[in-house]
Structures are given as C-alpha cells and as structure tokens.
Amino acid sequence: MDINGLGMATSASQTQSGGGQVLDKDSFLKLFVAQMEHQDPLNPMEAYEFSAQLAQFSSLEQLYNLNENMTNLIAYQTSQNNLQLLSLIDKKVEVVTDKLTLQEGKATEAYYELTEEATSCVIKIYDENGTNVRSLNLGSADAGSYTLDWDGLDQKGAILPDGRYYFDVVAKDAAGQEVAVNTSICGRITGLDFDGGLTMLVMEDGSKIGVADVVRVIDTTDINAQEETTT
What is the largest distance, in Å, between two alpha-carbon atoms of the chain? Predict the structure, then answer.
C-alpha cells in the first residue's frame, strides 16, 4: 500500500483527515511507519525518498513544538498583562465612549471635545431604547474640551429613571459642515472581568469597558490630596 501526501501535510502542524479527526505529529509518524510496512517489496522506496520523508517529519515536529511554545508564551504574557491591570483598581480613568449611567439623578462624569470652532452645538441624550429624552442647545463654541452638564432630567423637566444612557454631540461650522467630536467619560475602576477570555475593566457604575478604550489614568491619591488641601 502506497501512502502519498505526507510531504504536503508538513506545511501546517495539524490538518484534518477525511473523518474530521485532527492529525498531529504522532498520527503522521504512524502513517509513515504504515507506508514502510506496506511498501511493495519488488518496488521498495528509494533511499532519497526515505530521507526526504524523514526530513519532512522532522520539520513537522519542529513546527508543532514551535506552535506549542508560542501558545504557552501567549498564555504567560496574557497572565502578566492581567496582573499589571490589577494596579488600575481604585484608579480613576478616562474612557473613550458615549455611554452614560444615571444613578439617583446623577449622571456619569462625561466630556466632549470639539476639534474646531462650531457655530452651533447640540447635545442629545438617548435612553437604552434609542429615544431622545433630552436635547441641550449650547449655541456656538470654540474648539476645545467641555464637560457634559446634564442634570438627569428629561425635556419636560421630569426626573429620569436610573439606567444606561448615551449622548451624541452634533456640532456644525459656519459652512454647515459637521465638526468632528470626541466623547469620553471618567470613572473609577472597581474590578476586572476575565469572562470569555477577554479582560474587561469594571467601572464603579457596573459597566464594563475594554482596556484599549482607556486614554488616561488619574491617580486617586492625587485627587484625595487635592480635596484635603481644598478642605
């Protein structure tokens, strides 16, 4: 019995057989041994073919070991990164997002940045269902960063229920073209969530954010020191 295709399989550390089972290096070695045992005595494998398949198997084994080492290295690096993220707990951070949380009539500390001067600027607050519950017409504004000043009331002055909200800043220049706006919020990190293999930072309002969305870390020690000095 002549078993072909062993050399072609060395381009990857693993492949699929017709039955859907994963073939590892041990499986390829069994195939090679089976090929040696069932070769035609009247037409044996040439020496160079034997040497070539041994070399191919050696390459396959090295690729398999390299893949295993890389997997272990990634797992180690991930664990080290997670340990470093523990230092963010109880730190105040600024996060790129447009999501807000309203608790007891107090909204998340939020900011928006106009990249250029705007002749008109309107902030629209939406609830989780996408309903526009409040619009704040701010008029003209220079380029720069601003704090979102929202009292947690709807357009009619009624107190909105606690929950998740998000805001959208629509700014236009003198030509009527939209001005690019960057939005962010600030809050304390209270924990880490590793569910699903992706590390998420847990904010004090219970929301979860990605590490890549953090643009600034504020040391709470400095904040407390400033508050005591002011007092």
Answer: 99
Read off the pTM.
0.59
- Cα(113)–Cα(135) distance, integer angstroms: 18
Task: Strands of the chain (E only): list them.
Answer: 15-16, 22-23, 92-96, 99-103, 106-107, 109-114, 120-127, 132-137, 144-147, 163-172, 181-193, 200-203, 208-210, 214-218
- Count CA atoms closer than 13 A to 38's CA, side-chain side: 10
Concatenate the DSSP letters of all residues of 117-137 into one string.
-BSEEEEEEEETT--EEEEEE
Q: Are the C-beta atoms of 9 and 23 separated by less than 8 Å?
A: yes
User: What number of other Cβ atoms are within 10 A of residue 58's Cβ?
Assistant: 11
Handedness of CA 216, 220, 224, 226 (dihedral sign): negative
Per this entry, what is the length of the chain? Answer: 231
Chain-centroid distance of CA 193 in Å reads 12
Each residue's pLDDT tens digit, 164-214: 999 999 999 999 999 999 999 999 988 888 776 678 888 888 888 888 888
